[in-house]
Amino acid sequence: VLLTSGVTTNVDSLDINSEEDKTLVVSYNGINANVVISTTAPELVGVEIRGYDKYVILNGTYNKNKVNVYAVYANGTSEKVTGFTMNDIATGVAGTFKLTVSYTEEGVTKTAEADVEVLPVTALHVNGASNLITKRGEALDISGLKFVVVYSAGEFVEYRVIQASDVTVEIPDTSVKGD
Prior knowledge:
Blueprint: E1 7-9, E2 22-28, E3 31-37, E4 44-49, E5 55-57, E6 69-73, E7 78-81, E8 85-86, E9 95-105, E10 108-119, E11 121-127, E12 146-153, E13 156-162
Parallel strand pairs: 5-10
Antiparallel strand pairs: 1-2, 2-3, 4-6, 6-7, 8-9, 9-10, 11-12, 12-13
């Protein structure tokens, strides 16, 4: 049952900005109900990383915008927060690295860590090579080739297509007979 008329409260007279607990009084037909409202902020007891990229490719850029941090409070509640600090993930070497976040509230700082895997290159596929035909002495045109780089760690695999202009290719001298 939703009461839409005859209900009165003292909500307009409560000063939520003071530090004392407040009592909200709700009245209906001469019957009162009291609700104590605590205006004291709950104590920060921890932080959690609940959503982040667990993988980044070798020499890639780690996407910090996908990291979600939650403050955890002594009263059992938690909320998503901003304003946290985070370390950079070095991607120049394959392996497992620690993502560390810190969050400060009311002078209390809490830290959490999670593993991020920098994926190594495990394979390179070249598509379109069967169409590469050139005459001796002519430049070899590789612009039609597609390169697929495979990054992998265990069961997780990521594929990236790269352009010929982003690849260093040793082009044989076609002016002489041979391979």
